[in-house]
Design brief:
Structural class: alpha/beta
Shape: globular
Distance between the termini: 72 Å
Largest sheet: 7 strands, mixed
Bound molecules: NADPH dihydro-nicotinamide-adenine-dinucleotide phosphate
Number of domains: 3
CATH superfamily of the largest domain: FAD/NAD(P)-binding domain
CATH class of the largest domain: Alpha Beta
Low-confidence stretches: none
Number of helices: 12
Length: 467
């Protein structure tokens, strides 16, 4: 049977766009559909606009610190409208770049929601198209717990389009990537920021020392962290006409109440699996509610694959790119290649920034034998002159038996840039001796990674519990 396409991709985000372009490059006839904007979460309302906002928010510190370097800067004033609109324009530009990239690769774009009708038929924008192979790359979306008043809360989706001026007080619920990144953005732009977390510290899952370092640094910067608490109800102010608006009263357990002007939930994202006809095509979900895939990204349907955040692997843009690329190489390029999810570096663009590659100390202790752990905390040179009390933390985890560096962690300026370079070494299996044999670049923070000589004393082995 002749199909309209060799490959049809549902979702034009990072994973979908990469897979379609590579497949088309191998000569496949490719169609792609998108129901929001080409570019997906990362480009349109995620990593890219977020990073621009982080840049914008950092100027507050730069202006303050410049005095020690002899600059006189007048009273700084910030226009949220200017930053927001400039970021929006950049997103529009990138959206155009992505569309042109697809068109230039001969990938046909269908705007509209794609819905599987059977294993080879997709309905999009009232049209029915057929394809030999199908890729699901529909990503994820933020989820707000259904507490009373949840309709008053925003998510990261809306955070990029807030009206001007920004609210004076912002409360962010959650302690993951998005929560701490936006806390830094809003704080830098002059808002009073509260973070509400149900645990003792932010960033669960990261190296314990690093997350403590970030947690303490966020607090020291002036962000208030309300730990071990939850929001049970959001109560809006009601005007004479019955309209509901800020300020909001946030009710916590045991009768606590505090007030804020904006509530943002960053309590995790869920895969976009609803309303795309997965059941009609025999595509099953896993326990996490994501599309179940094997190591080749193949779903339970023989001609259907899934990549990116709609699967439950690592929810990061470069991982979706890798998965999409491997899929296209394997299915259309005659170059079978599995995505390798080991030693994926990542960064959290909070302030101070945190980045890592490899194992946390806790993971290494659970899975490996004896370790050597090296760490260093210091005030970076730039901050010494300005008197800014913001320290940098670095840590290397080495497997004693092999001397291999199995984890590399940093909290501090440019952590993401440094760790990206070190990720090559960790991925290549570099040993601590090879780190030591590497000459540093002076004066930098990064040279510390090749000059840490003395491991921290290892904890005494646990004694067997008394009978
Ligand atoms: P995360 O999974 O990182 O964090 C969710 C946070 O919300 C956790 O602190 C969690 O707490 C808390 N939480 C969950 N449910 C509730 C609840 N009902 N009440 C209170 N708190 C709750 O999610 P994010 O939304 O921050 O990010 C989603 C994904 O997007 C990330 O996993 C990441 O992969 C990706 N991302 C990556 C970025 C980057 O690379 N820089 C930037 C932004 C996002 P607890 O610890 O108690 O479970």
């Amino acid at each position: 049977m002749a199909y309209d396409y060799d490959l049809f991709v549902i979702g034009a985000g990072s994973g979908g766009v990469r897979a379609s372009r590579i497949a088309a490059g191998y000569g496949a006839r490719v169609g792609i559909c998108e129901d929001y904007r080409v570019g997906g979460t990362c480009v349109i309302r995620g990593c890219v606009p977020k990073k621009l906002l982080v840049y914008g928010s950092k100027y507050a510190h730069e202006f303050e610190d410049s005095a020690a370097y002899g600059w006189t800067v007048g009273e700084p004033a910030h226009s949220w409208a200017t930053l927001r609109d400039n970021v929006s324009k950049e997103v529009d530009r990138l959206n155009g770049v992505y569309i042109r990239l697809l068109e230039g690769s001969d990938v046909r774009i269908h705007m509209g929601r794609g819905r599987l009708m059977d294993r080879h038929t997709i309905e999009v924008g009232g049209e029915s198209v057929t394809a030999d192979k199908i890729l699901i790359a529909t990503g994820g979306r933020p989820e707000v717990p259904p507490i009373p008043g949840h309709e008053f809360a925003i998510t990261s989706n809306e955070a990029f389009h807030l009206p001007d001026p920004l609210p004076r007080r912002i409360t962010i619920v959650g302690g993951g990537y998005i929560a701490v990144e936006f806390a830094g953005i809003f704080h830098g732009l002059g808002c009073e920021v509260d973070i509400v977390i149900r645990r003792d510290r932010v960033l669960r899952g990261f190296d314990e020392e690093c997350r403590t370092f970030v947690h303490d640094a966020l607090k020291a910067s002036g962000i208030r962290i309300r730990s071990e608490t939850e929001i049970q109800r959001i109560q809006a102010t009601v005007d004479e006409k019955g309209g509901r608006h800020p300020p909001y009263k946030l009710h916590t357990p045991l009768g606590g109440v505090f007030e804020t002007d904006l509530v943002m939930y960053a309590t995790g994202r869920v895969p976009n699996t609803h309303g795309i006809g997965l059941e009609k095509a025999g595509v099953q979900l896993d326990k996490a509610g994501a599309v179940a895939v094997d190591e080749w990204s193949k779903t339970t349907a023989d001609n259907i694959w899934a990549v990116g955040d709609v699967t439950d692997r690592i929810a990061l843009t470069p991982v979706a790119l890798m998965e999409g690329h491997c899929f296209a190489d394997t299915e259309f390029g005659n170059k079978p290649r599995k995505a390798d999810h080991r030693n994926v570096p990542s960064a959290v663009f909070c302030q101070p920034e945190m980045a890592n590659v490899g194992l946390t100390e806790e993971e290494a202790r659970r899975t490996l034998g004896e370790l050597r752990v090296y760490s260093s905390a210091f005030t970076p040179m730039k901050h010494t002159l300005a008197g800014r009390r913001q320290r940098t933390f670095m840590k290397l985890i080495v497997e004693a038996a092999t001397d291999r560096v199995v984890g590399c962690h940093m909290v501090g300026d440019d952590a993401a840039e440094l760790i990206q370079g070190l990720a090559v070494a960790v991925k290549a299996g570099a040993t601590k001796a090879q780190f030591d044999a590497t000459v540093g670049i002076h004066p930098t923070a990064g040279e510390e990674f090749v000059t840490m000589r003395t491991p921290r004393p290892e904890p005494a082995p646990r004694k067997a519990a008394a009978e």
